[in-house]
Amino acid sequence: MRDSTEVAGDQLSEVFDLVEIRGLLSGGFAVRGPWVSRASVEGLKFFALVCGRARLTTDGIDRPIDLEPGDVAILNNRSWLELEGGTGDGPPREIQPEPGFSSSRLQCADRGTDDIMVGGRVELNPAGQALLQQALPPVGHVRASAAAATHLRGSLDRLFDEVTGNRMGSAFAIRQYGQLLLLEVLRAYVDQAELPPGWLRVLADERLRPALRLIHAEPGRPWGLAELAHAAAMSRTSFAERFRSVAGMPPLTYLNRWRMLLAQRALRDGEVRVGSLATKLGYASESAFSTAFKREVGESPLRYRYRLRAERSR
Fold first, then answer.
1. Total structural domains in the chain?
2. CA 221 to mean position of chain CA atoms
3. Which of 27, 74, 120, 299 has the least C-beta neighbours within 10 A?
């Protein structure tokens, strides 16, 4: 089993920064007795069961998923969701999704008797949406009982304590714990599941890790297939085939996409000149960089920068 703390050094943190990933708590409830909750969903969502038992159904899966205390499910671009749980006689109580997060539904929760569920959304920039949606299946189920999820339950408990504690600074703490919960979910998922081809899987691949370290350490260097294969102690053919099967793209395509992520951050956050950025990222000219950027992002570097600044000013 892989050790998620060793996922390509700290390149997972580097990717998190580049795609501006955030886990934001958006709802939750505590209920006793039979219950059901139905909702329309979109984008990337996560649902964590603090206490009790629940069953999750959504489009894109063959059968419902049983959730146990501490389990988390990540929904990847699904269209609808149904959660049900509780025991007892009578029709299930229908829990309506709330328009905005409020801790009032959880203030009087009883961990001994209630089913307690919290949910949230994963926010990313457009590049991050493409990366993470490619890297995850329709529904990712992370089991708290697995050895790889030892820290997940603690993160969930601390988040819930802040939601219900009504302490000074709780809103800030909830944002931070939501972020840490998402990190623990992805760490555990890397260890528990057979990942589809994509950036999460390639970052976790031990055979390819030496080559990934080179790409991430010096993205502006004109890396060739032979150099990267040598770093991974593989033949060119074996390296190219493994990289494509694990990452879902050839190694030099990965290098170019990594450069584009770095370029987007530089244009988004700094005042760097386009020509200097092109040189730093290994392009022979500003025009070559601009062409590559527009092909990947859909607009020129300067237009990208001006658009983001205008959006932020609004």
1. 2
2. 28
3. 299
Q: What is the CATH number of the domain that holds 159?
A: 2.60.120.10
Containing H/E element for 54?
strand 54-58
Tokens 């992805």 belong to residue: 186
Q: Please tell me the distance from the alpha carbon of residue 200 to that of residue 212, in angstroms, as a whole number.
A: 12
Q: In terms of DSSP bridges, do strands 44-51 and 115-123 run parallel, antiparallel, or are they unpaired?
A: antiparallel
Q: What is the pLDDT of residues 191-230, one digit of tens each?
A: 776 778 888 888 888 899 999 999 998 999 999 999 999 9
Together in a domain, 146 and 42? yes
Name the token pair of 8: 């390509």
- Rounded to 5 degrees, what are φ and ψ at 254? -60, -45
How far is residue 145 CA from its own chain's centroid? Answer: 21
Q: Which domain holds residue 149?
A: 4-195
185 with 274, same domain: the answer is: no
Cβ count near 214 (within 10 Å): 17
13 pLDDT exceeds 80? no
Q: Are residue 87 and residue 150 in the same domain, yes or no?
A: yes
Give the DSSP letter of residue 148. Answer: G
Structure confidence by residue, pLDDT tens digits, 111-168: 888 999 999 888 887 777 777 877 788 898 988 887 777 888 888 888 888 888 878 8
Between CA 255 and CA 243 the distance in angstroms is 12
pLDDT reading at 23 higher than 90: no
- pTM of the shown model: 0.76
Residue with tokens 């029709």: 91
